[in-house]
Amino acid sequence: MAHNHTHSHGHGHDHGHGEVFHSHAPVGKMKQAFLFTLFILVVEVIGGLFSHSLALLSDAGHVLTDIAAIGLSWFALKQAEKPSNQNMTFGYYRSGILAALINGITLILITIWILWEAYGRFQHPEPVQSTWMFVSAGVGLLINLYLGLGMRHEDDINVKSAVLHMLGDAAASAGVIVGGVIILLTKSSIVDPILSVCIALLIAFGAWRIVKQTTVILMEGTPQGIDFQKVVNEIKLVPNIKDVHDVHLWSITSGKNAMSCHVVLDGDMTIRDSQAILRDMEHRLIHLGIGHVTIQTEDCDHPHENSELCAAKEVHHHH
């Protein structure tokens, strides 16, 4: 994540630090994706009803979760643009994470529904008309590829989760088309529920990853790709820092990492000396992908727990 080394450290204490990681989220693209996906849903539901294809209907279920996903992502991107205020001092970034979490859970529920329906179909296979399957799935495939590939380079987890939906959808539509070909050739409709099970598992896999990642962020866990011990060691390398404790690492939203800690400095230092140390620390941490840093400086006599978390090497100071 540390992709901005041109940061100016020339002036006092720079509170603009975290903005290094602000992704210019594609609100317009999301809106376009939302409208297009709505169109796919209509086409696939009509196609699914006409062709009696569970694979198409489960794909439509997949698309419905996409609409939720994209709608929520779009809403969250709009929210994230709102400035922070006295009630929400971190701004509204977390709304995107909440959106992604709700997405993930809905997706898992839809998966269960598809599996249940498919189970019924295995017992009593229904005849499926494949022409409708081609047309509807073809529309879905093309639009999703266009949308997903158009946004695949975005960093925002919220946008990533939406793109994952789109590409998953494209894969599912492609599967439905292949299924249609097999049904045409073999005249056997059992392919349909088999396909819908595959689509369901595809949905569940993506959903589980989203749920896991968002839960870590909401639980204030150490951000993905950041090594706690490495951060602590880096701070200890700063000249004149005797010790560090009470270290907290978390993400405000994906890609916006924050940290707070207490550092022990030599008691005879002037404020100006300690400013130089703060700047040195901030500079090192930016390179590790942490943009928002809050540091409490203390002297050796300051009473505190002797640990980084509550599990670290004790440092005994001899006065």
Automatic annotation (TrEMBL):
Residues 223-300 form the Cation efflux protein cytoplasmic domain. InterPro entries: Cation_efflux (IPR002524), Cation_efflux_CTD (IPR027470), Cation_efflux_CTD_sf (IPR036837), Cation_efflux_TM (IPR058533), Cation_efflux_TMD_sf (IPR027469), CDF/SLC30A (IPR050681). Residues 33-219 form the Cation efflux protein transmembrane domain. This is Cation diffusion facilitator family transporter. Its main location: membrane. The chain crosses the membrane at residues 33-54, 60-77, 97-116, 131-150, 162-184, 190-211. The lineage of its organism: Bacteria, Bacillati, Bacillota, Bacilli, Bacillales. It comes from Fodinisporobacter ferrooxydans. Pfam families: Cation_efflux, ZT_dimer. It is found in: Membrane. Keywords: Ion transport, Membrane, Transmembrane, Transmembrane helix, Transport. Belongs to the cation diffusion facilitator (CDF) transporter (TC 2.A.4) family. SLC30A subfamily. It is a multi-pass membrane protein.
